[in-house]
Amino acid sequence: MSQIILHHAESIEQFPHAFFQAAQYAAKSTFRKQQTETLVRIGSILYSGAKLIGGSYNQDEHTWTEQHYLYHAEVRNINRLLNKLYKQQGPNANPMTTSKMTLYVVHLANRPGYFWKNAKPCQHCEKVIRSVNINRIFYSINDTTYGEMRI
């Protein structure tokens, strides 16, 4: 069971700096919803303590599949991390080291005057996050609220 904590800020300037770093990745996304052609810009970054490990953004899925979540920013970021661990440590790589990591996820708004949208990880991404033992996730909700999920 996840514990969710809501944090309130008077302005986006009061959000943790990591949100703005994740926003730089989100800005690279070119994914558009098929039905509406709405641009969906979601980015994520991983920190280990105070060290930035890596970042990613959602990728265009081209075709809808049952595994569409593999293109989500959170899963792409985790896959990059695991590939890096296996390259460094070989077949005995220990993904349990991710338990000390924190994931930040942002969804950039497309409307003028608004900056953030809800970026709470979907159920598929949450399963992947749990499987590698990342136990803290921060995500944008709107311009005055962000969530913290403790798994």
What does this molecule look like?
The chain is of the alpha+beta class and 151 residues long. The protein has a single domain (3-150), classed as Cytidine Deaminase, domain 2, CATH 3.40.140. The protein has helices at residues 17-26, 73-89, 123-131, and strands at residues 3-8, 41-48, 51-57, 101-108, 116-117, 136-142, 145-150. Strands 1, 2, 3, 4, 5, 6 and 7 form a 7-stranded mixed β-sheet that branches. Strand 2 and strand 3 (51-57) form a beta hairpin. The mean pLDDT is 86.
List keywords for this structure.
151 residues, alpha+beta, Cytidine Deaminase, domain 2, 7 strands
Q: How does the overall form come out from the CA principal axes?
A: globular
Distance between the termini: 7 Å
**CATH architecture field:** 3-Layer(aba) Sandwich
Listing every helix as H and every strand as E from the N terminus to the C terminus, the arrangement reads EHEEHEEHEE
Task: Evaluate the radius of gyration.
Answer: 15 Å
Number of domains: 1
Poorly predicted ranges (pLDDT <50, ≥5 residues)? none
CATH fold node name: Cytidine Deaminase, domain 2
Write the topology of this structure.
Blueprint (H helix, E strand, L loop, with lengths): L2 E6 L8 H10 L14 E8 L2 E7 L15 H17 L11 E8 L7 E2 L5 H9 L4 E7 L2 E6 L1
Parallel strand pairs: 4-6
Antiparallel strand pairs: 1-7, 2-3, 2-4, 4-5, 6-7
